[in-house]
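Chapter review: from sequence to fold.
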Amino acid sequence: MPYCVNCGVELEKRERCCPLCGVPVIVPDGVDQVQEGRLLPPGRDEYSTSTDRQLIFYLITIALAVPALISLTINLLINSRVTWSLVVVGSLAAAWVVFVSPLLYRRRVFPLWIVFDMLAAAGLLYLIETTVPTKGWFRPLALPVTVWVGAVVLVLYKLIERRALHGLQIVSGVFIAIGVLSLFIDGTIQEYLYDSLRPGWSLIVLIPCIAVAAIFALIQRKQQFVDRMERWFHY
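The token string follows.
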């Protein structure tokens, strides 16, 4: 769109004079023939996000499948049966879910990849319990801790996605999440070991996290106040 050189009013393409001040509009030859739309050079395709997702998916799959197959082969050659390699394969499979699940689920209605990460972590911990001599710790200890971690991450993700947290408030939210999560994990461990919910080491983590979160929240509030004053006084 051309503009008036005198008053700056936006003009229509076919106007020969400014409707506001009457100054004649002079359009150089060929300016009105510029094609709008595609700005990329000829033969250059637009950026394809889906192609990049597929490439990353295949690269991650190959990078994790190769060490899994190598560990299985070594285990079979040495022990003639699958023993320790089962944990290695399970760990690589859980890592595959963690890295690939955000690529597969692009809808932002609900972060399904967080749920799949929780299931992968729980499955890996259960696999470890079945392969180690110590039994009986998965259901009362590992499973609740996994659920607590997934729930805190999910709540934090939704708060950030809904813009309830922004800027330095995100940092404050992360520290609060760490403190609350440590309290939950400590309580689960105390219940499993001593049949008591009395907090211990988590208080040492929770108090500094609250202090640091408060500092970042005050800094963010101060910045918002400064920005508001700049808008009011136009400087």
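Two observations follow directly from the output. Residues 152-229 form one domain. The chain has six helices and no strands.
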